[in-house]
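ping. complex inputs:
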Amino acid sequence: MNWPHKDLIAIQDLKPEEIGHILDMASSFKEISKRDIKKVPTLRGKTVVLLFYEASTRTRLSFEIAAKRLSADTTALSASGSSFSKGETIMDAAYNVMAMSPDCIVIRYPYAGIPKKMADLLPCSVINAGDGYNEHPTQALLDMYSMKERFGTLKGLNVAIVGDIMHSRVARSNVYGLKKMGASISLVAPKTLLPPRVETWGAQVLTEFDPVIPHADVIMMLRVQKERLHDRFFPDEREYSFFYGLSKRRVDMMKKDAVIMHPGPMNRGVEITCDAAESARSIILDQVENGVAIRMTLLYLSMGGTSNVD
Ligand code: CP
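pong. complex structure:
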């Protein structure tokens, strides 16, 4: 496929066949990470700048590892320690970064819309590593890859996404992507953690967890985003965990081959117990492993990689 996109800002911008192409290509990139020498020359001479204005462990590290495995040069900047702390705007920072001729900027920002603005105004590739409550497209792609790896297809899968839907860019991107790929989605949350107009997303919306469990192929637990909870959305963590946490009792209600996912970081004892996170059904660390392969694929495609993968 001739890749038509300079940037990756939103799952909503991708056609189903483009999502399929990314998921197919990622398997070749995953193989590179299993070699003794985990490095290929594919993006030699390219420069990737990681701008992370919000905390990250998995996304930032996996983009950096992905770029290095493809031989690109990387450099990273966070809000603390940058001139953001002196009042410089994000777009001023972006123009200054651009003056140093990067080939790709990976940006995480606490508010929606900045990656799109950068993509529209800068000549280099821009990849959205999460913008506010809006989208986290690379997370959804690695999640879809992990589901397809386990079940062989996304078409017809029943996926339950459970927890803080309101503040979750992971939920939005997964709903958009999974719908395009033919999966059925149930969103489960207390009413207070459902966003306005959630019924327009094209998913079944429920406020009770137990009834969906026996039908789900995938149960994706979402983190309660304590840093974004400026109001009281539920009485206390104990009660939240009782009604919406994935516990051993609920794991025992799951279908025989169903799997547990979580984008991380987990609040153990709140949305997921240690039993559930570490059960044989958990593919949470597969998601992290697959994140490197997906991000290698996206860096390769965004920067117009034309040589053989290996
Ligand atoms: N899933 C995810 O985005 O994790 P990080 O915040 O650690 O990058």
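The chain has two domains: 11-135+288-302, 137-283.
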